[in-house]
Amino acid sequence: MAATSTATFSIGTTASLGPKMSSLPQSKPSALRFNSQSSLRSFSGLKAATSVNCESESSFLGKESSAALRGSFALKAQKADQRFQYHLQPQASYKVAILGAAGGIGQPLALLIKMSPLVSALHLYDVANVKGVAADLSHCNTPSQVLDFTGNSELANSLKGVNLVVIPAGVPRKPGMTRDDLFNINAGIVKNLIKAVADNCPDAFIHIISNPVNSTVPIAAEILKQKGVYDPKKLFGVTTLDVVRANTFVAQKKNLKLIDVDVPVVGGHAGITILPLLSKTKPAVSFTDEEIQQLTVRIQNAGTEVVEAKAGAGSATLSMAYAAARFVESSLRALDGDGDVYECTYIQSDVTDLPFFASRVKIGRKGVEAIISSDLQGLTEYEQKALEALKPELKASIEKGIAFAHKQTVAA
């Protein structure tokens, strides 16, 4: 977008993609007006240093919203009676690859990532049908360039120079398919993709969505170790959907503004290994024993709720894509220097006696900067018992993944 004297950007209702937005008031239709004193060459991924006045016509620009804008535009804000003076800094841009971009999660995820102002190039990879997805997305008038890559022969090129890799590739469970069948197929897919990541972009952030996450993340770790490029701070199992669901269900149950609610979810990413820490909910709210039981079970079984509602026509693809996009945006903000990025994610961890565990973490330019272990302190009796109950199942899933990786031969 070009402007010579005055540039006006209208931005509608704004929603947060980060977990640190709990102090935001609920969004309402609103607008921002940017008046530039010099040329603005593009709407996002702004490169030129210039000055912009920002007038807020509503109250949605609180402290945390300012942080979100700063993360996208690298802006330094000074507040004065709902008027802001921003100084645009040189804006870095990032390349993101989606492996499995033509699937049920991959397509809506690609659309959401295409909307990010931090993305300069979006690489879409799949074994088939990805050219049409890329052509479709390329018509969206957001700055990122869309490139498509099909089949194993183009996998390496899809990963060259990439800063962040998202892996939703895999198959959903189908009628007649056992859990072992599902595991073997998806574990093999993840193994092959991670080998390519190790060879072509070993320094990239890696986001794993492919189920079972409790096992596929340990598989990825072992393959990266065999390749000699493992950085535990940059390997993430995407459990954001559990947080998204917990926030939504608690807000509905307690009639809270959804934008205000933040519930940490720890453990793993399947069944009873998902442990929402309702006692740590922000804002603080009390629950009856019955509410705790109902909410916990609903959060743990929310995927089944969607499958049943779709009556065999699919699974939780849209909410998963939203949650994954939120985690991608958080990671990109961290890479871009935002010092206030926190998410729950399944990572290598020593906060329990398990080698992998989902916790709330602080993410920075080099990956995980800190694990918020204090979330596991002061648990209720219910939460403590649930924590101990999930450990055997999570341990078995981790060991299953490691054993699978060790059976594979990885070329150096």
TrEMBL record:
PANTHER family: MALATE AND LACTATE DEHYDROGENASE, MALATE DEHYDROGENASE, MITOCHONDRIAL. GO terms for cellular component: mitochondrion. Residues 95-237 form the Lactate/malate dehydrogenase N-terminal domain. Homodimer. It is an enzyme of class 1 (oxidoreductase). It comes from the Eukaryota. One of its GO terms (molecular function) is L-malate dehydrogenase (NAD+) activity. It holds the Pfam family Ldh_1_N. Belongs to the LDH/MDH superfamily. MDH type 1 family. Its EC number is 1.1.1.37. PROSITE patterns: MDH. SUPFAM superfamilies: LDH C-terminal domain-like, NAD(P)-binding Rossmann-fold domains. This is malate dehydrogenase. Keywords: NAD, Oxidoreductase, Tricarboxylic acid cycle. It catalyses: (S)-malate + NAD(+) = oxaloacetate + NADH + H(+). The keyword Thylakoid does not apply. Residues 239-404 form the Lactate/malate dehydrogenase C-terminal domain. One of its GO terms (biological process) is tricarboxylic acid cycle.
